[in-house]
What does this fold into?
Amino acid sequence: MHQKISQTPILLSIAAGNSSCCIFRVPKSFVEINDECYQPQIVSIGPYHRGEPKLRMIEEHKWRYLGSLLDRKKTSSGLSLEEYLKAVEPLEIRARECYSETIGLNRDEFLEMLVLDGCFIIELFLKVGKLVPFEPGDPIISMAWILPFFYRDFLRLENQIPYFILECLFDLIMEDGQSGPSLSSLALEFFNYAMQRRDEDIAKFHDLKGKHLLDLVRKSFIPFDHDGDQRHKGPTPTHIIHCVSKLRRSGIRFNPAKEETFLVVHFRRGVIHMPTITIDDFMSSFLQNCVAYEQCHRSCTKHFTTYATFLDCLINTASDVEYLCDRNVVENYFGTDMEVAGFINKLGKDVAFDIQRCYMAELFNNVHEYHKSSWHVQWASFKYTYFDTPWSFISALAAFILLILTVLQTFFTVYPAVRGDPVKGQG
It folds into this structure.
């Protein structure tokens, strides 16, 4: 018993509660919902999935890339592998503290892993960015299926190394006077092959830094004026907003908005303005890992958690997805409308969310107040029921004409009797 009392936690270390800790095992409740979104499929980065048999193929190519990098740099700057290991050695303790689990690698193994994985990532960024040529016939670029897996695997929460390790290695690799893009620019351009954002939208992030690659890309979606979650001022927003179909019945409409990021949503005069979001294999994985990161890290803002909760409120059924697709708010490259609805509902499941401390608190409150306004609901419900589609309008018009004809027939039957006019045929 005394031994257990003095035992140091391993699976969730004491350091996991510090702001410096930023690379976590995904909570079991999230993994049970969708395990594949958190598990690397082709490449291991960092210690959590190191040595897994299914990831051995790319592990061999890591050493090949490291060898080509060392050969190239040896001619230009004379740096050997030992110099790279010595450069990251003072960062070992700081790097270990970034992981929520106690890492069971000794010093040499841990440093080797950091250098091998970090150099592989940077070398791949340089090659894809056309600053360094690919070797002829390199299967990583010649086989079309491989790179899309890298885009996703490099942005999984459990598959990270600290960003300051990447910066340290990048400075060594680029120290021979080369002028060129920053590490963050190279990284964002690499992932932009999957995200397809406008070049001007990512060019401004030249000096952006993150805790790791997932955090870097996550931060690039957060507007500069959204530097943190703030407590909502005014009436306490105690209600989650309703789904699309119910909001439409109360007269609320959805329009696509021209914003730099899908996180910026506005509500004005009964219209929710939402920038278009593309739901595909990459974005679904990215969103889930961002939410998992925000749920685990004590100091980061909760923008993706808030947005995921917002989508989960809006979407209940396939018809909700269909309407948002028709309004160009959602672009569906994920599957059927039902599959998108299922994904969104999983995205918001078991998520801790504080509506009073989120950046959408005012929007939640304003939409709820608009929805509960009785005259809005009654008038909009009437329009939704009778004028939402051409067929419903034709049916309502036919019923109205039938009602008028019935009234007229009754009138012309009853009116002569009321006036006392003689019935025809009697004399």
Observations:
- The beta strands are 253-257, 266-268, 271-275, 277-279, 330-332.
- The longest strand covers residues 253-257.
